[in-house]
Amino acid sequence: MKLPPHRATRRALTLAAPAVLTGLAAGWPSPGPAQGASAPPAAKKKVLRYAFRVAETSFDPTQVNDIYSRTITPHIFEGLYCYDHLARPVKFKPLTAAAMPVASDEFRTWTVKLQPGIHFADDPAFNGKPRELVAEDYVYSIKRYADPALKSPNWTSVDSYKLLGLAAERKRTLAAKQPFDYDVPIEGLRAIDRYTLQFKLETPRPRFVEFLAASDLYGAVAREVVEAHPGAVGGHPVGTGPFRLKQWRRASLIVLERNPAYRERYYDAEPGADDAEGQAIAARFKGRRIPMIDQVEIAIIEENQPRWLSFLNGQQDLIEEVPADFITQALPNNQIAPHLAKQGVQAYRRVRADIGLTLFNMEHPVVGGYTPEKVALRRAISLGVDIEREIRIVRRGQAIPAQGPAVPHTSSYDPAFKSEMSEYSPARAQALLDLYGYTDKDGDGWRELPDGSPLLLEISTQPDQASRQLAELWQRNMDALKLRVEFKVAKWPEQLKAARAGGLMMWGVGSLADSPDGIGTLRRYHGAQSGGQNLARFRQPAFDAIYEKLEVLPDGPERETLFREAKRIAVAYMPYRAHAHRYQTDLAHAQLLGYRKTLFWQEWWHCVDIDDGLRVAGV
Hints:
This protein is of the alpha+beta class and 619 residues long. Helices cover 28% and strands 17% of the residues. It has helices at 18-25, 69-76, 135-146, 155-159, 166-176, 209-212, 215-218, 223-228, 276-285, 304-312, 327-330, 338-342, 372-383, 387-394, 426-435, 465-480, 492-500, 519-522, 541-552, 557-573, and strands at 47-52, 81-83, 92-94, 102-104, 109-113, 189-193, 196-200, 243-249, 253-258, 295-300, 318-319, 346-351, 354-360, 399-401, 456-461, 484-489, 506-512, 576-588, 592-593, 609-610. Strands 11, 12, 13, 14, 15, 16, 17 and 18 form an 8-stranded mixed beta sheet that branches. A 4-stranded mixed beta sheet has the order 1-10-9-8, with no helix packed on it. Strand 2 and strand 3 (92-94) form a beta hairpin. The longest helix has 17 residues, at 557-573.
């Protein structure tokens, strides 16, 4: 939903006097302060301001798998390819590559040519010389994920593409207990010449371009910078992207500025012919040099009310995902509120390519395991979760129930697929618990484990208001089942660190698709990615076999059948309790031009403009 465009303000045009023009043409000095003329005012910076609701973790691509850090990194680092900002359905296009990749050997070999003349942002590590991007930079950047010393949570994702020799070199390094040797040639990851990359894979990967387009993770990093800041590159990111880090107050403020070394690049998005909104944006910006703004300021505001108020007060140009607490104020009856419409505020609403999940640590002695009684406990907990109430009260109606691990807008999502994930049945839940021996054995009113030992559910959560509301609902739901529950509160980055280490029993997480291929969200269930994307540490041979077939098969009926089977296994074993797919409503003030919410990619700042002439007085 989008309001009609705000009326543009008129701008005065000042014409220079002919005598001055003639004098300048003849080489006269410009009049300066000594002649009584003031210097022309400096152009006002165009600054985009908005807020994250969760703190960042790092700006080293090997160390991030949270959405907030992954919003920063692709604006600094660049992958070989990108998504067309306006194309729906999505379309890939070259970014630092000179053309689309060439696949051969049944999608096992991929060859990419780079554009010459692309440079990294200036940095002391380059000794004052321009540093050109070359093929070897991508080789080095991807090798970093295999370095055991970095303990990258994304290694399992990289390894899933089976680059020939990369995992073997990691294994050799671990066995030898030596530092990773970045100079050892890897057959599957080579710079053929200065501007040519070749990837060789063990098995076919028909959709390998999606890996090459993930700038948030696989953008080029300069080796000199990493070596100049050992162990601290996460606070000193240097890439070829349109912005560079200017200021960072951890968990408080992130400021990026335009990269003055950024190459000539122009707005060239291509929306569909029937996409009126996209066509209007393209008409406004086509041919403009990007980025169009000078600076981006990101505040970290975890609580909903201050984040909402900072937008209303004009301190933020944009609020991503209006908090559920205030959605009815912003969009009563799903229409922009009159007082916001008068200010030129525009609203953008869609179902996100995301899912809310509660993970069960499959290695935990209470809720983990694959025996019938452990599966029954997880399924009983799931049946006791009132998703309709969660959506209606906590999320203020801004979500739809999830039926399984697949998310909207991806190839595995089928709106007709139904499962018990959306079912709320305390009676069935209690019957399951009784059947498998989870009964009150000591008469204290709470259920015990089948062997009579205490049964206590530990649910990790955060201190913000939305998390508190969800915790209250969990308490209500579990009290009804006579399951004792305790909440472990900590900041989100701390919970993530503990989850990666297998230290949590249960925790609520979100998963946002990063590509149109539905296999992306199934990474959370893939045994080889335990401790990385697979925070539940789920390992099930039948599922893993399906996952590995899905990786190599081309799109078609056989792959769709395997997706359905994978979803059925995910629902049956319940390593994650899927909750809902959220509607996202973003609001933008009139001065933010060209905004369009992305689907699978996070980089968009270079595609918008700020016009302070459209800013409403007092806001």
